[in-house]
Amino acid sequence: MSEKPIKRIVILGGGSAGWLTAGVIAAEHQCHKNSHIQVTLIESPNVATIGVGEGTWPTMRATLKKMGVSETELFTKCDASFKQGAKFAKWVSGADDDYYYHPLVLPVGFHEIDLVGPWQNQNHPEAFGDAVCFQGALCEAGRAPKQIKTPEYDAIANYAYHLNSEKLGLFLKKHCTEKLGVKNIVDHVERVVSADNGDIAALATAQHGDIEGDLFIDCSGFASVLLGGHYGISFLGKKHILFNDCALAVQVPYSQADDPIASHTISTAHQAGWIWDIGLPTRRGVGCVYSSAHCSDEEAYVSLVNYINATPGYNADELSIRKIPMKPGHRAQFWHRNCVAVGMSAGFIEPLEASALVLVEMSAAMISAELPANREVMDIVAKRFNRRVTHYWDTIIEFLKLHYVLTQRNDSDYWRDHLRQETVPAELTERLHLWRYQTPNKYDFPLAEEMFPAASWQYVLYGMGFRTSCRSEKVGQRESQIYFDKVNRIKAQLLNQLPSNRELINKIHQFGLQKI
Amino acid sequence: MTKLTALSPERHKHFKIDTNRIEAQGAHERLVPVVIAEFSKLVVQYPVVFTKSEETGEFLCVAVLGFEPKENLFWQESWQGIYTPLNVIRQPFFVGKEKDENVVCIDEHAKSVSLERGEALFDEDGRETAFLTDIKAMLAQLLNAEEETKKFIRALLDCDLLVAMPLEITFGNGDKRSIRGFYTVDEAKLDNLAAEKLVSLQQAKYLSPIYMMIASLGHFYSLIQMKNNRLAEHADT
After folding, report:
1. Do the chains contact at B56 and A148, CB–CB below 8 Å?
2. Cα gap B183→B170, rounded to integer Å
3. Which of the residues B31, B51, B58, B182 would you substitute to probe the A interface, choosing the one with the greatest number of A C-beta atoms within 10 Å?
4. Which is the most buried residue in A342, A450, A513, B88, by most CB within 10 A?
5. What is the pTM of this model?
6. Chain B residues within 8 angstroms (CB to CB) of chain A
7. Chain B contact for A513, CB < 8 A?
8. Which helix (H) or strand (E) segment is A400 a member of?
9. DSSP string covering A492-511, please?
10. Residue of B nearest to A151 (CA)
11. Closest CA to A161 of A262, A65, A20, A57
């Protein structure tokens, strides 16, 4: 151990995780201006990256803005579209009219008043999400979250993106190498060169010799070449909690070029899993997630085809369907010695709440902000990083399980098994017990940078039909009515002002968004 | 209602334009798009700012004539300004597109258009009159000037010189208004602009319109005064 300064950062892997991480670090440390921090990204010439239509969290806007990326270019180069949250269909009862929204806008007056009690007590005619938030109505009407006059990255209604993650990787690669001073080496890594102390000294490449570094970031995807392969850090499987281990993915062209583009992710439950439906400007990305223990590939295939064919004008027979195996779980540690894993090399979980890219962003932001000054303090940073990212994984897994554990579906072993106590994390069981008497609040999630805010838990919890016996004297009916009225007022106003999602995206392609 | 039709000797042979009623067509314009070629005449009286097109989000230069929707404080039975913007006096004519070609269009429902009174567009043989020839020349000039103005805006955006200009106004009767959507040149950024960018603005002859726009902002005070006078008149009646 020494006070050797950390200067050379080597990232292995050029997917969206690798380039996002490179961009976050290079932008913050101003690598294009002869900074003493140097970021090098090594990628193989012909490793196919996994490119499915993917959802992000609103954090992506701040992440890209900080990197100096033009939002207009993101739309034109990455098939991006607006995402205003998720619609969960058939998760509660499985009936055709069973759905709820998990929007990205906080419940009205979230920091001033708890509306759960009044909403329950007065048997509000609308679902929780629609009573306390205007955004579901915008989604139902296919509206965009902003206007063409709204500057880049600014929102009228909070939003994230749907995009082609493979194109995002290529787009960020160009930006990182041309604007942010990231060095790119396209080569195969043949061997890890160890230092005497057990650190990684260099990555030996086929054409470019040994690439030395002070910190190595493993973005090598499922292969987890450095953290899993070289260091043998164990993988903690989570299939006993979240059963899904397979997906069938397909690209569905629009039946008409001007078909509406949904401005939310649609997640529709089926007998043994769920189906994602992500609207990009050029096509929909649809996929069937399922548990191989509960459902055969053929059954999943039928679920997927039936889902697609249910919309008039669509026929899944002509489309090519790709099977993607999934291994839910994460590494026991994420930062070991001078090696830290970001992205699928760290772990993977079903994309039910679009947690993959946001976890990359949060990991990269922490590595960048806490970039160890020298090797001596790196272990302290590593310990903090591991503690935090472990917490993130725990909350992701609990939050995803929340979507299953409150179901009333009884149509298959899959749904029944999800309710079995031994499949529910103890922390979640405890939370649910507490939430019988109090609503999820900031004390449930005390970190300044949580994965999912308490509002998200409320949306899913009460969307799934959960009841909390609130102390009724806390909020008066008249006081709460002011807030419910406000939601309706904003709803009417925005439905009047906002263009359709496709209309705005077309305009962005034609005119661009302004920077101010 | 505006109804634009491509101008043709067949359809519009007997149409006449009452030049005394042209300015009246701007009676309810709160913002008029303007071009840098007319800045020196505009900035004597009007605040000239940037705003975004509702349709495309792109920046435009506009002269500000009022505060409320459809309020033109320069209109009081006649145009009360020394200079009337080109985009007002070119009416009822517009330049439209037909198969990528520019064509002159006319708003047949405009107040100045009739079959009875004013300047003829075509003579008995269907040939265009000197009046129409002048109009066409003016439209062509305006079209060029609009292109030039777009380049000006593009250059300023490339130098990151635009800044939002929120207005908080209290009128004489105590009414408060927050006005959003206007932008101007950021003087601090202009003062600190890198030398090569400054030279490029100078060579393009953009420094003069930039300073004219900045100086024109003082006219917001006279515009508020005009509004106060109008409010006082209404209070009296």
Report:
1. yes
2. 20
3. B58
4. A342
5. 0.92
6. 52-59, 157, 160, 162-164, 181, 183
7. yes
8. helix A375-405
9. HHHHHHPPBHHHHHHHHHHH
10. B57
11. A57
ipTM over 0.95: no
**Two structure tokens written together for A215:** 């910190």
A67 within 8 A of A61, measured Cβ to Cβ: no
> pLDDT digits over A332-343, tens only?
999 999 999 999
Residue A449 confidence (pLDDT): 86
Q: Which residues contact A216 (CB under 8 A, 6 or more apart)?
A: A9, A10, A11, A12, A200, A203, A226, A338, A339, A340
Q: Is the peptide bond before B69 cis (omega within 30 degrees of 0)?
A: no
Which of A149, A507, A510 is opposite residue B52, by nearest beta carbon?
Answer: A149
Confidence grade of residue A50 (pLDDT, cut at 50, 70, 90): low
| Cβ pair A507:B157 closer than 8 A | no
Task: Give backbone dihedrals phi and psi of B101, rounded to 5 degrees, phi first.
Answer: -100, 140
- For chain A, the straight-line distance linking the first and the last C-alpha, in angstroms and rounded, comes to 48
The answer to whether residues A129 and A136 touch, using CB atoms and an 8 Å cutoff, is yes
Sequence-separated (6 or more) residues with CB below 8 Å from residue B191: none
Asked if residue A200 lies in contact with residue A335, where contact means CB atoms within 8 angstroms, the answer is no
Q: What is the pLDDT of residues A32-44, one digit of tens each?
A: 887 789 999 999 9
- Which tokens sit at B134? 């002048």
> How far lies B184's CA from each of A106, A152, B51, B161, B215, in Å?
34, 18, 9, 8, 11
Tell whether the model's pLDDT for residue A241 goes beyond 90: yes
Confidence of residue A472 (pLDDT cuts 50, 70, 90): low
What does the pLDDT look like over B116-151, one tens digit per residue?
899 999 998 889 999 999 999 999 999 999 999 999
**Structural domain spans, chain B:** 4-230
